[in-house]
Amino acid sequence: MITDARALKPEFVPRDLHHREGQIDHLSSVLAPLQYDTAENVTIFGPSGSGKTTIAKYVVTQLERETLGIRWGYVDGMSDNTTTAALHRLVREVNLGADLRRRGEPTALALDRLRECDDQVVAILDEVSVLEERPLVALANLPNVSLVAITIDEEEWLDSLGRPATSRMQSAATVRLEKYSLQELIDILDSRVSHGLIKSRVDDEAVRRAADIAAGDARRGIALLRRAAKRLEETDERQLTVETIENVVGAAERDIQQRRVRSLGTHQRLLYNIIADAGEISGTELADEYERRSVDPKSDPTRRRYLKSLRQYGLIEASGEGRARRYRSVT
């Protein structure tokens, strides 16, 4: 049933991207001046599953293939959200820091490696709203580094930045994405089927049903296909049908949730685990328990940023304000 499992992974970047041609052209034009040693920063905004990370990786991969003297690296702000973690991840991604250790090495050393690099560097900062501001400002100050900052909400992120970061990112070029329409998502999922599955064993209506359930979110649609294909591999079912898709909805949602939990950084995971263990907890109780369990507690503003990211990605829910604030885990 499965001919190429890579096509069913959310991080897979296909050779051809459907229904994002305009945004790809715009991003390409912004980064094209890297051929002449200069390019502006760019921000990509849009809802979850709208293709933000995919088009960023697609464009910089194409640019790297066509241009000498360009390197690029990817940093996931959900897992590498501190200054040290983000900078060390980036220098390793661009093959400048294999010998650097995250613990015990000053962040200035990572910045020096980037500054002294003869190549132009593109830093893709995913989930940048969770990232500390210091690496954002430090990287923006390097003349040979261009930032591609990715997050969901443009206004909320820019409003949350301090003055140094705001002055650097407000002038960045902007790429905005919307949720996919039903037909657009059908086309995307159909392409994944062609790349990764035996197409004759997948009903057209099953692809349509997966797109309908996913409601514009490509990540959810791909998760449904992956879980449905796995079901066929593990059973004696021969055809991937509408019924197959409907039978794996719960499992696909759990796959997405588990993947997001695995991507969390240390302090986000601690906050999530406290809420999940309690089922429901007040903001005051959460703060007290976090302080008790954490070796090096983060500040209140940082904690609020982490909790907001957990809400945005459907891992927790929140209600009430101030002292009446309560958090619940989503199962």
Automatic annotation (TrEMBL):
Pfam families xrefs: AAA_16 (PF13191), Cdc6_lid (PF22703)
Key words, A-Z: ATP-binding, DNA replication, Nucleotide-binding
GO biological process, alphabetically ordered: DNA replication
GO molecular function, one term: ATP binding
InterPro entries named in the record: AAA+_ATPase (IPR003593), AAA_16 (IPR041664), Cdc6_lid (IPR055237), ORC1/CDC6 (IPR050311), P-loop_NTPase (IPR027417)
UniProt-listed PANTHER family: CELL DIVISION CONTROL PROTEIN 6-RELATED, ORC1-TYPE DNA REPLICATION PROTEIN
Name of this protein: AAA family ATPase
Organism: Halosimplex pelagicum
